[in-house]
Design a protein that fits this description.
It is built from 15 helices and 14 strands. A hairpin with a 2-residue loop joins strand 6 and strand 7. Strands 3-2-1-4-5 form a five-stranded parallel β-sheet, with helices on both faces. The protein has a five-stranded antiparallel β-sheet with strand order 10-9-8-13-14. The chain has a four-stranded antiparallel β-sheet with strand order 6-7-12-11. Helix 8 packs across helix 9 and helix 10 packs antiparallel against helix 11. The chain has three domains: 161 residues, Rossmann fold (3-Layer(aba) Sandwich); 178 residues, Argininosuccinate synthetase, chain A, domain 2; 46 residues, no CATH class. The longest helix has 20 residues. Bound molecules: arginine.
Amino acid sequence: MYKGKVVLAYSGGLDTSVAIKWLMDQGYDVVTFTADVGQTVDLEACKERALFIGACNACVMDLKDEFVHDFVWPALKANAMYQGTYPLTSALSRPLISKYLAKIADAEGAVAVAHGCTGKGQDQVRIEICARALKPDLKVFAPVRDWHFSRDDEIDYAKEHGIPIPVTKKSPYSIDENLWGRSIECGPLEDPWTEPPSDAFTITADPWNTPNDPEYIEIAFKGGLPIALNGIEMDGVSLIARLNEIAGKHGVGRIDMIEDRLVGFKSREVYECPAPVVLLQAKKALEKMTLAKDLIAVKADLELKYAELAYVGYWFSPLREALDAFFNQAQKVVNGVVRVRLYKGQSVVVGLKSPNSLYVNDLATYSSGDTFDHSSAVGFINIWGLPIITWKQVHGFAKKEDGYENSVVLDKETINSKY
Ligand code: ARG
């Protein structure tokens, strides 16, 4: 019985290819939607595969610009790294994909949308919450979560139904990729004692196979966002892509962590994020130069909160919007140029300059002629130290009645017996 249209988020891989046929068998027409967020797949082939399997429409959209402007840049302004380590590569693309699933469902008059996530991941949570936040009455199907096929069952099903099995090299890893990095899971990585094998990585070189000379780059920031690389102004998509290449060549951007998943268990996760790692590092250094001390301190807590919202699927929450307003304000003065050295898997900030610098050389210098008022130090210390000195007078070892003001014989025994 015909049940209507379903819009399926289609990666072109085996799971979602089988899902097209499976949904058709359940009585649905399937419209596939593939978001181009900078992943290295042949999108034309992906579209053809969807239509060949039987999709009634296959839609591929270049969303790289929108991904960068509406998701990556706000996250960068917020220095968003989940648990201080993961730049949210996959997590940031899900609200965007969800938004278009909902829009296409509207345009196509679909009865539901569908995704290929399993029941153990967090992408299912993000996609379902984000899509329903935008279109509350939307039904979301998760065929891969429901059908309990093993990989072999899936391949058998694909063969039986004439579904072309994507001709990728047999890989033990589960990969998700976009401009903001590459997430690598499963296979040998499930053992936290095993060093990630070289074949897990594709956009970063092994640090022992990188150029023997350091490379210096300069990133210009305006309002907390990068606007130029090595003096050349670039749009966000090009800048991230170029930085991925340069830093990746030096083996910069590998992350290996035990991550606390939203679905309750700890997971070993490996990422390659050359551009995010360098940009976050460079911008944080520039913030130290341009932002007030208390703002930096308060902001650190909110950065973790922001990252957590993106991670747990709360992208479209009022708290995230309010935090955006905070970070936009805080980033207004984060302008300047950061010089970074890339060498053998490491990036190091080696130079900073900013028109908004709060670093004043005349105050900081130890050379003669500085403008710091040395004589104020005495009064400052008296008042600044007053609470501590008062406390110690009342509770500490140097009580007046013990005669601390009298001179004593300075041998260890006398000192210890007295104090
Ligand atoms: N642990 C990461 C996250 O939750 C990576 C997810 C990768 N997704 C995937 N479908 N392979 O954001």
